[in-house]
Specification:
Jelly Rolls, 10 strands
Length: 280
């Protein structure tokens, strides 16, 4: 079924699925330099209104996948989901520099409050080696809301850098953190409107809040992780994402149907430890 292009065309006829590889040019949009926010606070939250993409149809796509009991990350079969992060190229560039790549670290969520679902538990994306010697991050995670994300349906929570005593540590304490409730007085809850963009430092603590109102609408979102090409130039063998084992992706490249299928299948297996239990 996943290799059957007609299945995908019939599922979401208003979205695009290319049968051949393609590259796109990023649009020229006004953007602020987000590097200071990432270095000071560890995260950013911006409103973005230049998508020129059918966000409603994209959220309907995720709902259809959920109804079929398929992982929402299959939404990346459609080109529109790949185009999302090309629209905010200037923002990503302000953090990682002109040359960066997309990592094989892509996901999508449908959090259903009626089923008391939640996002992923508290964690850090990166490791002590996830920053350069000058303190700038090697990677950044971009998270985009396709529906409103609220206290009631499971929005994102972060612990800002100043509130995390273990942030940036290079010993075992970096991996030691408490339960989410421990951070009630130090976390920031990031409610977001559909189309809003969040981003965070690889070392910041974050999680998806547990949904609390069974009557709330589902929270739908996607995330993609990016890496500065400076990491490749350093031959950074200590870094988690080896180029040889997990080839980095041109941020303006949209794979063909077969390559998308192979990548998404790999992602579902790669993140099984995050989604396979009810609490994840």
């Amino acid at each position: 079924m996943t290799y059957d292009i007609q299945f995908w065309k019939d599922l979401c006829p208003n979205l695009t699925i290319a049968e051949t590889d393609r590259w796109v040019l990023p649009p020229k949009v006004d953007s602020e330099d987000l590097s200071e926010r990432i270095l000071k606070d560890g995260y950013f939250h911006i409103q973005f209104d230049s998508w020129q993409l059918p966000l409603d149809e994209m959220s309907k796509c995720i709902q259809k996948l959920k109804d079929l009991d398929m992982q929402p990350v299959w939404c990346f079969m459609y080109d529109e989901f790949w185009l999302l992060t090309t629209k905010i190229h200037e923002h990503i560039k302000s953090i990682l520099g002109e040359n960066y790549s997309k990592l094989p670290a892509i996901w999508a969520w449908h959090i259903d409050p009626a089923k008391e679902e939640r996002g992923w538990k508290i964690h850090r994306e990166g490791y002590p080696v996830s920053v350069f010697d000058d303190g700038t991050p090697k990677t950044v995670t971009i998270w985009i809301a396709l529906s409103d994300a609220t206290h009631e349906n499971g929005c994102i929570c972060v612990v800002p850098i100043p509130n995390d005593p273990n942030f940036g540590n290079t010993d075992e304490s970096f991996y030691e953190y408490e339960s989410e409730d421990f951070y009630d007085n130090s976390k920031i809850t990031l409610e977001a409107k559909a189309g809003d963009v969040l981003g965070w430092h690889p070392q910041i603590l974050h999680w998806g809040k547990t949904s609390t109102n069974k009557n709330a609408t589902p929270r739908m979102s996607i995330s993609v992780e990016f890496i500065s090409d400076r990491a490749m130039q350093l031959d950074d063998s200590a870094f988690l994402y080896s180029f040889d084992e997990n080839p980095w992706i041109d941020p303006f490249y949209i794979p063909n149907q077969v390559k998308k299928t192979e990548l998404i299948s790999m992602l579902i297996s790669q993140y099984k430890h995050m989604w396979e239990t009810k609490d994840d």
